[in-house]
Amino acid sequence: MTYGLIMRVLSKSLVLCSVPASLLFSSAVLPQTQPVEVDGTRYLDELVVTGTRSERRLLDTPVRTEVVTAKEIEKTHARNLKEALVNVPGLQLRAIHGKAGFEVWLQGVSSDRVLVLIDGLPMTATTGSSVDVSQLAALDIERIEVVKGATSAQYGSSAMGGVVNVITRPPQPGLSGELTTDSGTYRDQNPSAEKYEPSRYSVRANVQGGSDALSMRLSGSHQHSDGVDPEPEDWAMPGDEFDRNDLKLRADWLAAQGHRIRASLNRFEEESVSRYVERNPPNFDNQRKDETVERSRLVMSGDHKIVSSLRGGWSAVYEVLNDDTVKFNANSSFDDRSAEHVLSKVSANLEQNLGSTHLLKGGVDLKRESLKQIKDGVSELEGDGKQQREGQDIWAQDTWMPTDKLELVPGFRVQNDSDFGAHVAPKINARYDLARSNGVAGFIRGGVGAGYRVPNLKERYYRFDHSELGYVVQGDEGLKPEESVSYQLGGGVSWNRLAWLETNAFLNDIDQLIQTYDTGVINNGVQEFRYENVAEARTWGLETTAGWEAADRWRITTGYTLTYTEDLETGRELNKVPRHQIDLGVDGPLFARGLNWSVRIRYQSDEFVDADRGTRSPGYTTADLKLNYRMSSQVRLFGGVDNATDVQRDFSNASEDFRPVAGRFAYAGLSVSFGSQ
Hints:
The chain is mainly β. It contains six helices and 36 strands. It has a 22-stranded antiparallel barrel. A five-stranded mixed beta sheet has the order 3-8-9-6-7.
């Protein structure tokens, strides 16, 4: 924990830099320095790779992709991946039960069926089934690509609901660096009960340099929160206290013309504290849970131009995730749990142009993952206490343009799992240009893809023992893989690449859906639940997005998502999926040159907590307000108010209210750079 201690000491000293910025915003006294405007790439001209594994302009891609740009991350002051994704239309960020983090749902499909990647490579699921996106610091991000629906022909198991791919930027030659720090307050919901005391702060920095042949970058981030506590005098604290530290070293080497090799080493540490009251009337027991997460990740990859029309690439990732928790009450400690997840994957691919109408791509993936978990000195996994599985995948894809207006992208993936054998997942995407000129472009596109998800190791072997709370969840080694078919059909139109409108209809059919069910067995008052393939489900609906980049600093975006769901076994709707979601973003200039404002508004309708009982969580609307003042090309001041509408859940009925835990949060910060970032 030496690194974490260093980062905490450094951040507590740097957070003082945010105070002058806070005073600046409160008094509205702005220096008259001439700012430097930095022109950015237009949104429709952003390059994307996730949908087809080939670099394409967003306007031209045959696979519908939504992008969070580096400019958007800067404007909205995102500190981590969760905050960067919060304004993606139709994307849901759900609080992870029992943790301080968040997971991603897409098109009504839950998080353990959504694949989170960094530069196209998978991450270990933080909870054993889904990735906690709040743990990923917003370091060195070039853009984030979101592809909804099954893309298993590209990325394999766990991509049934879609893919979130974080693309990082390469280190730049020369010498440059940047330091960003901010701090803020929840006012009367600060755990200290001091309204004006900073209760949450962060600092992130990087330094990079080198030559065109060899360049390196060192990046670090520290995020701290005292937690959120509407009633500081009580023991329970609904928003957890946490410290998150992230350190990353990356090197890019141009070994020869057309041959580039990259390597990165990442270390993440998190310490969090939860305070809660276990209510077993007439007893009310004050309890605390301490959790420590450590992630070490090593990545190497290379791109090689073999001959003029043939290219190849390879990548390898090795990651170890340790998650340790222990609970306390007034008398003792208990539930001392330790888990270790290990992920390793090696991939290779080739790309061949066949004339001007075909681009063939194919590759091989070899993957191994293992899980060990111990509670109070005893393994919680069946067998010898350690479970692992291996997989070998082969995939292929052809980008075929039979005419200038029509593009077809068929592909397939053959997955071979050590426990479940072979499975074939085909897909096809198509795009047809209705009109294309310098002024107006119109198109239709659609796709069909097969999804496939192998049960994770926890679902098969893990015994989730909460006997003290009256229940256990038992793994089931006999689980079958989930399968799905995803249909996407839509179109769009754009004017001068500055304004656009897109619509997309979707349908996801899922078979062998894995859920928990009540076995009816009760031993000594402890109810037993078990994982089983008990359901078939369907999600369908309509997504619409629109935007207008009216001028250099003016931008308007909006999105509406309508989602229907059905459990085909019962005919009821699925839990935790709102029917309606609306997003609105507006950016514009203010009085002084270099001063800009942004507003992000989100509406979500009510949703089922338990469709069997008919209980619902209320709908809500939140608004975030942002200010950015660029004093020069190297100094930026910023501030804002998150959840300005101060929407919060009813903590007296928190189990049936999914509205935000955190209320209004006001903050200010400072960013200073040198060299050319």
